Amino acid sequence: MALFTRTAPACKRLALFATLDACFTADLAAIIGSDLPQHDLAPTRFIYLVEEVRDVLGASGHRPWQEASKDLHIAAEHLTDALTAPAEDQAGALAWARTHLRDAITAAT
Known about the structure:
It is built from four helices and no strands. With 109 residues, it is an all-alpha fold. It starts with 7 loop residues before the first helix and ends with a helix.
């Protein structure tokens, strides 16, 4: 029976996503009045939350929220790219995502 083990790049990617989750999930959930998840989010669930907040803010007529929605759109693209990027490109994609997440939360609050 073979044991399932993650490769080093996969573990590093998950750790980086967990860091973003820890830094931004509470703020993102608060923006849309959602309950804070009771556990860490998987990378795809974190991206889904970013997209959900993007859609809520984008539907608003409030210009700063629309700008925040654009930043969240870009962040979601970088997060998605990081899931499939070669190991050497993942950190860069996640760093760009972090920048856009921070900018979006600042604009939305």
